[in-house]
Amino acid sequence: MWRRLLLRLAAGLGVVVGATTLTFLLLHLAPGDPALHLVGPAASPEQLAARRTALGLDRPLPLQYAAWLRRAATGDWGESVATGRPVAGMLGQAWPATALLVGLSLALTYLLGVSLGVVQSAAGRRADTALSALSVALYAMPGYWLALMLILVFTYQLRVLPAFGAAGLDADFLAPGARLMDRLRHLVLPLATLTLIGVGGIARYVRGAMRHAAGAPFVLALRARGIGEARIRALHLLRNALVPVVTLLGLSLPALFSGAVFVEAVFAWPGVGRLMVEAVSARDYPVVMAATTVSAALVVLGNLAADLLLAAVDPRVR
Amino acid sequence: MTAPPARTRERDPLLSDGRVRLALAILGSAGLAALFAPLLVTAHPHATGDVTATRFLPPFATDPAQVFHPLGTDRLGRDVWARLVYGARVSLATGLLATGLAVLWGTLVGTAAGVWQGWLGIGLMALTDFFLALPRVVLLLVLAALWKPSGTLVIVVLALTGWMSVARLVYGETRSLMARDFIATARALGAGRPRLVRRHVLPNVLTPVVTAAALGLGHAIMLEAGLSFLGLGVQPPAPSWGNMIASGRDTLVNAPWVAIAPGLALVLVVVAASLLGDALADRLTPS
Questions:
Q1: Distance of alpha carbon A244 from its chain centroid, rounded?
Q2: Long-range contacts: B137-140, Cβ < 8 Å, 24+?
Q3: Which residues contact residue A48 at a Cβ distance below 8 angstroms, ignoring those fewer than 6 apart?
Q4: Closest chain A CA to residue B130
Q5: CA distances from residue B82 to A101, A110, B2, B67, B263 in whole angstroms, order as listed
Q6: Which contiguous run of DSSP H or E holds residue A208?
Q7: Looking at the predicted structure, is the pLDDT value of residue B176 above 50?
Q8: What is the model's pLDDT at position B287?
Q9: Alpha-carbon gap, residue A77 to A63, rounded angstroms
C-alpha cells in the first residue's frame, strides 16, 4: 500500500514537472516575443535587447527552464508581465475559488449522478428511456451554453440570482450573515452549471455498472435467501457498482477542471481558470506557467485521492 | 458518415437499434444542411445591410426588404439561420478532420505499443498516460492562444489533445489479440510484425476504433465551439456555433435566440455522436 502510494506520488510529480516542461517549450516555440510585447513596437533594437537580457530570454532554453524550475521550487513564481503583481499572490487568491467550485461540484455531481443512475436501474422501461435521454442531453451540453441559459432564466427573467463574480460589489459593507448569503447566492449558478454538465456522464456510468452487477451470481443467491429487491439494490448492487465509479472519480477531475475553465469565464468567477484564460490571451508567460503547474497539481492530487478512496471501498485493492 | 461495423457473427443490422437511427438522422441532416448550405438560406451569413432596420428581429420575422428570417437576426442584422447552417460546415468539418487525425495517430501509437511490447511499447504508453493526465482544456488554451487563431490550428490542436483514449483502447485490444492463437500461428508461419499489423491486428481493432471515433467526434465538436466561444478558434465574421454563442452572450436580454439556436444545434449533434458511440460500444461488449 505505502509502496504503491509512493510510486504514484513520484509518477504524479513526474506529470506535474512534465506539464511545466511542455508548457515552457510551447511558450518559447511559439511565434511572438514577450519582450517585444512589453517594450512596444516603437522601441529601438537596443531597448529590446536590454529587455530580453533583463528577462533572461537571451540565455539558452534549458538554462532558462532550470532557472524557472529552481525559483518555482522555492515559491518564487516571478511577476505577471501584464499586471506586474507577483504571480504567487495572484494564484494564492485564485485557487481557493476554483477549489471551492470544483470540490463542491464534484461532491454534488456524484451524489446526483449516482442517485439518478440507481433510480434508473430500478425504473421501468419508459422512465429509464426518459431519464437516459435527460442524462445524454446533459452530457452533451456545453457548460458555457448551459451557463448562459441559466443566466437567461434566473438572472434576466426571474431576477433572483446574480451572474457575475463571487461576491457583490457591496460585499465589504455587509454584515457577516448577509455577506455569507451574498457569497452563497453568487455560488449557485456556477455550481449548478458545473454540476449539471457532469451528472449525465456519472448517471450513465452508474446505470451500466448497476445493470452489470445485477447479472452476478451473488444476486441470485441473495434472492434465493428471500432478500427483497430494494435491499439487494441498496446494500449489495450499489456497493459493487461503486467500485468502477470510484475509479471514474480520478478521471473526472481533469474534465471537471476543464469545465471550470469555461464556467469561470462565463460567470467571471475569480478562479484559476479565468486567470488562465486571461493570461493566455495576454501572453502573460509567468502566469500561464504557474497556472498550468497548479492545475496539473490539482488534477494529480485528485487522482491520488481517488486511488486512496478506491482502496477504502474495495479491500481487494489494498 | 460511419464505417460499417467490423464483421459480426450474427450480422443483425446496426440500424435495428433506435439510437443509431436517431443519431444517423440527426448527423445526416446536419451534414446535408452543411453541404447544401447555399440552397437553404434566404440571406448571406455575414453580409450586413441596413443594420438599424434589420437587427434583433425575432424568429419568423420578415425585414423591411421582405427577407424572411426563420430564426431572427443578430445585433448586426445578420440572419441567424444562415449563420447556423454555414456554422455547421465549420463545426462538422473541424470535428471530422480533428477526430480523423486523432484516431489515425491514436491507432498508430496503440498498435505499435501493442505489437512491439518492449521498451517502445512501454515508452509510448507512458507518453499516452502522461498526456491523459493533463487537463485537456489547459493544453488546448496554451496551444490555441500562442499561434494566430485559425480553423487549421483548431483542428491540429484538437487532434494533438484527442488521440490518447484511442491509443489506450487500441493498445488494450492489440495486446489481447497478440496473445491469441491465430497470431501465434501467423508468426510460426513466418509473418513479420509489419505484416501482423496489416493483416491481423488492424482489421480486428476496427470496431473499437470506430466506436472511439464516434465518441471523440462529439467531444471535438464541443471543444471547437468552446475555443471559438473564448475567441481562440474560428474568427468572426465567419460563423461557427461557438462564436455565435459568444456573440449571443452580449445580447442575451434583447435577443436570446442568437445564443439559443447554435447551442441547441450543438447539443443535438453531440447527443447524436454519443448515442452512436454508445450503440457501437454496446456491440463491442455484449452484456
A1: 20
A2: B137/A257, B137/A258, B137/A261, B137/A262, B137/B223, B137/B226, B138/A257, B138/A258, B138/A261, B138/A276, B138/A291, B138/A292, B138/A295, B138/A296, B139/A22, B140/B223, B140/B227
A3: A33, A35, A36, A39
A4: A15
A5: 38, 40, 27, 12, 15
A6: helix A176-214
A7: yes
A8: 44
A9: 16
Cα(A195)–Cα(B131) distance, rounded to whole angstroms? 25
Q: Is the pLDDT of residue B10 over 70?
A: no
User: For position B268, what pLDDT does the model report?
Assistant: 94
Interface test with A, best of B27, B129, B141 (most A CBs within 10 A): B141
Q: How far apart are CA B65 and CA B76, in angstroms?
A: 15
Q: How far apart are CA B196 and CA B181, in angstroms?
A: 13
d(CA B256, CA B181): 61
Buried/exposed A2-32: b ≥16 CB within 10 Å, e otherwise: eeeeeeeeebbeebbebbbebbbebbeeeee
* Helix or strand (DSSP H, E) at A214: helix A176-214
| C-beta atoms of B134 and A265 within 8 A | no
| Per-residue cell: B217 | 467526434
Amino acid type, A277? V
Rounded to a whole number, what is the distance in Å from the CA of B187 to chain A's nearest CA? 36
Query: Would you give the distance in Å from CA A220 to the centre of its chain?
Result: 40
The pLDDT of residue A191 is 94
Q: How does DSSP assign B8-46, residue by residue? A: -SS---GGGSHHHHHHHHHHHHHHHHHHTHHHH-SS-SS
Which pLDDT does position A33 carry in this prediction?
A: 67
Residue B118 and residue B78 in contact, taking contact as beta carbons nearer than 8 Å:
no
Amino acid letter, A143: G
Contacts with B218 from chain A: Cβ below 8 Å = 140
Phi-psi region of B23 (alpha: psi -120 to 50; beta: other; left: phi over 0): alpha
Rg for chain B, CA atoms, rounded: 22
**B226 three-state secondary structure:** helix
β partners of residue B62: B68
Written as one string, the DSSP assignment of A55-69 is: HTTTS-HHHHHHHHH
Percent of chain A with pLDDT over 90: 13
- ∠ CA(B215), CA(B219), CA(B223), 5° rounding? 170
Find residues 144-173 of chain A whose CB sits inside 8 Å of chain B. Answer: 144-145, 148-149, 151-152, 156
| Cβ contact, residue pair B133, A211, below 8 Å | no
**Residue B229 to residue A262, Cβ atoms within 8 A:** yes
**Which residue, chain included where needed, has cell 501493442?**
B114
Residues B186-239 pLDDT 10s? 888 888 888 888 888 888 888 778 888 888 898 899 989 988 888 888 888 888
Distance from CA of B242 to the nearest CA of A (A): 9
Q: Under DSSP, is residue A86 helix (H, G, I), strand (E, B) or coil?
A: strand
Residue A190 corresponds to which amino acid? P
Q: Given phi > 0 = left and psi -120 to 50 = alpha, else beta, which region is B247?
A: alpha
SS3 content of chain B, % helix, strand, coil (to 5): 70, 0, 30
- In sequence order, the 6+-apart residues with CB closer than 8 A to the CB of A158 are none
CA distances from A148 to A11, A189, B72 (A): 39, 10, 19
Question: Which residue in A148, A277, A283 is closest to B245 by CB distance?
Answer: A148
In this prediction, residue A54 carries a pLDDT of: 75
